[in-house]
Amino acid sequence: MARKPLIAGNWKMNLNHLEAIALVQKIAFSLPEKYFEKVDVTVIPPFTDIRSVQTLVEGDKLLLTYGAQDVSAQDSGAYTGEISGSMLAKLGCTFVVVGHSERRTLHGETDETVLAKTKAALKNGLTPIVCIGEGLDIREAGEHVAYNVAQLRGSLAGLSADEISKIVVAYEPVWAIGTGRVASAADAQEVCKAVRDELVALASAEVAAGVRVLYGGSVNAKNVGELVAQPDIDGGLVGGASLKADEFATLSAIAAGGPLP
Ligand SMILES: O=C[C@H](O)COP(=O)(O)O
Fold this sequence. Notes:
By secondary structure, the protein is α/β, with parallel strands linked by helices. Helices cover about 45% and strands about 15% of the residues. The protein has one domain: Alpha-Beta Barrel (TIM Barrel). The protein has helices at about 15-30, 45-60, 85-90, 100-105, 110-125, 135-140, 145-155, 160-165, 185-200, 205-210, 225-230, 245-255, and strands at about 5-10, 40-45, 65-70, 95-100, 125-130, 170, 210-215, 235-240. An eight-stranded parallel beta barrel has the order 1-2-3-4-5-6-7-8, surrounded by five helices. Glyceraldehyde-3-phosphate binds near residues 178, 219, 237, 239 and 240.
């Protein structure tokens, strides 16, 4: 099954609402309609910028989508600081990142937390981008495939095949995030293939063939072409390079198969 590539720009804790508007405008200006037939492009701003991005995307009928960086596992109530799936859905979000390694490491999120957030996203019609990825010690010990498969299993435990068909998986080796040290295309492919094989076991071959598996970790316009050329890599979860309009537009165009904007 042909999978349309997805380029997701995770802005992390950067930009104010004016900068957000300027960035989205520049990306949209650089990527005319024809690109969106071949690649899905989404921006993932901080919560505080989502409304501004929504106004722009809806007002100008832009073809790019947007999402959020996290979601509460809870529906509503006394959860100070949390943002629910229904709140994000009402803001027009398409995607939500769950289990990013920065959430797992800095906020103690476990596979159980990630599973609960994945369910909350699905319940509200959002597409969760479920992140997994090993640290350098695991990679150097040669245990990265088993580690990622176990993290995937834990993060999707008990989901139905239909639910699994509605997720995106992002493989982000922690040692490659924000370091400029990208995984080789072959190393990234090895884990993304193992992810897809595990999706066959968790759901079915048909479902696994349709789920988009992204690579993340120092993706830029120079390396994205080789990464998305791998049979099991369907796009990128992009951090630093998503804050630069020209570079993000260029790498999205490369994922679309060109031409360069
Ligand atoms: O969510 C994005 C990833 O953490 C990758 O970040 P990066 O492209 O800055 O390495």
